[in-house]
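Q: What would this chain look like folded?
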Amino acid sequence: MANSYRELKVWQKSIDLAEQVYRLTERFPSAEMYGLAKQMRRASVSIASNIAEGWGRRSRREYSQFVAIARGSNDELQTQLVIAERLGFAEPANIHQVLNLSDEIGRMLNGLYTFLQRPKGSSKEA
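A: My prediction, written as structure tokens:
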């Protein structure tokens, strides 16, 4: 079991995702810096932030709620990435790289959420 949220792979990858989103949106048209780019940055930061905040609550029930919020932020980011691609704000290959990481994080968040839903002390607990 991890001693800190910083040891969780899903949190580490979420930090990587936020960094990639910031780098991707740096190249957006300047008119979008306070529009879609800002929303994407906020959603990407929200993923790692909610994992950390949920960890700090020290309650499985509350932690699972924050993981669910992180999943929602990840889905929001994926939607925004599709919009950015359709509008031609970035190279499709760059957007797909970020989407792939987001997909991986989504699977990890689903697994963490499922784990947190099991009764504490379950024989399947890691």
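The CA atoms of residues 5 and 85 lie 32 Å apart.
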